[in-house]
Predict the 3D structure of the following.
Amino acid sequence: VVDARMTDGIKSSLFNALLKIDLYPYQKEGALFAVRAGRCLIGDDMGLGKTVQAIAAAELMAQLFQIGKVLIISPTSLKYQWKTEIEKFCDRTAQVVEGLNQRRREFYRSDSFYKLINYELVARDLDLIRGWSPDLIILDEAQRIKNWKTRTAKTVNELESTFALVLTGTPLENRIEELHSLMEFVDRHRLGPLYRFVHNHQVTDAAGKIVGYRDLEKVRHSLRGVMIRRKRDEVLKQLPARIDQNFLVPLTPQQQALHDEYREIVAKLVAKWRRYRFLCEADQRRMQIALAMMRMAADNTYLVDHTTVHGPKIEELEILLKELVVEGGEKAVVFSQWLRMTELIEDMLGRNGIGYVHLNGSVPSKNRGALMKRFKEESACKVFLSTDAGGVGLNLQSGSVVVNVDIPWNPAILEQRIGRVHRMGQDRTVRVLNFVSRASIEERILELLRFKKSLFAGVLDEDGGNVVMVGETGMEKFIQSVEEAVEPLSPADPELGRQERIEAAADEEAAEIRERAEDGLPVGAQAGVETDVGAAAVTAPGTRAGEGTKVETEAGAETLNSLLVSGAQFLMSLSKMIAQPTGVREDTDTGSGPTPLGDGVPSLQKVLQGVLGRDDATGKTYLKIPLPEAEAMSRIVSGLGQLLSGVIGTNRQR
């Protein structure tokens, strides 16, 4: 049907009055590809107009296949953006589905060509969507289903429609399995079962760890019929230049002290991983918090302690905006991951009389269009200030300067920010200015993410390599990245905080106990005073027993020493739990950054909830302590048996 009605391809007359705007040739190719495939993925670079291609494809399907129901699933912040674009490009009706259950039922019963929902509603409205029975489903920012294990991915894959269109500028961010998850919705048979797909393309070392991916050309070949991807430099030669520049700013002494305090916590946890090859969930969470604190301190001390304001980024940004915005007449889009940082910037803009709008997660999605309109149309509105809530789906071409006050971990998020300005409709050179704190974790973030970019290129780009090596994976890879991020930095401030002082004292005490035990010396409260353990005291292995009161065997002494060291380590860990901050809450606008609370619930209570249990029969409380491996436990029990035998033998001699 398609070839019969569109024999001239992208020059077909059907494109002449398809939308209210003229499409670029590559956009026509994308829409035609989607119609011919029926179900496909458009993975164009950000800013190339995937939205208009999807709308054009829907219009072609309406004319060729008489479809009449299109469901668009997007992040919450983009639902009204889609409604605006639909009304701009065509005359179809579009209904945003929201509100309570009964209200949403009415929306599904209403007569509209497009219905717009967010990903979170799919699970709740699954039966309603099935009852409405859409002909075409469009997934926008489809990386939301890249992890097939999530509830969102599973429920989206339960949806049924004749036609499907998946839109994402980042089909792959970390692992090749993400691409498989996306293709499960498009064509579940295209790449075969996940276990076989991974087995055929992963490279493992002798220990079975994934160290790379191979035969990527086969993956690209398998996707040619269902995925189309164009890069910006291939299709938009007329797009103005983009200039990237990094501004290195120094840390103040106050920033450095906070930054290095949390760096020490990270370093100790890394050392713990290297020693035991294991971090409990609490330790992993603690490491994430410490890393986030380092990044916050690199911005401003206010983000950490909520009282002091130390950090040169605000002053540097003020100078920059005065030059480019006030004197130069440009418009700037300023991004920060941290909501509190945008509040400091907001105060600075107010002091200088610079007009701005502020977008963050608390702004309802239906009000965001008004912010974009004001930034675009009002000459006095010079700055669009945003958290990463504005890094997706917004069209901000009226700006020509992008300022990243801080650098995100994920390069895709950074490109999403820039893609809001450097995109279709931009007619000026775009300047991208990144503020990076010198001698901080920020200096290393982009360098650590090079692998993600190489994997992205290797699988999806025609000119990508056929093999990408990834090194160690999982926790080992993460720890390696963390080590690289913190090792080159300046040493910690010698004046440790309360928590660090407690930890340092505990570490010193444990080290002293360990050294004395290894040397066969007494491990009592005072040096030179022997400590009774039952009826036996410990002497150095190989020494002669005194009056039958000391254990002679080297194995027994070694076992007891090991037990004493383990006990000291347990007490040290307990002291560290007591020293935890009083609470933690999320501070980033996207829920990815924790900060301490001054008035939160003591973290010790939360920690103890995980290690305390209650006997249902007696009602008594007991302490749950993880046991070591079976082999180690066997040695301990055997050692205790030897010790008890020695004690009993000594008592009998008496």
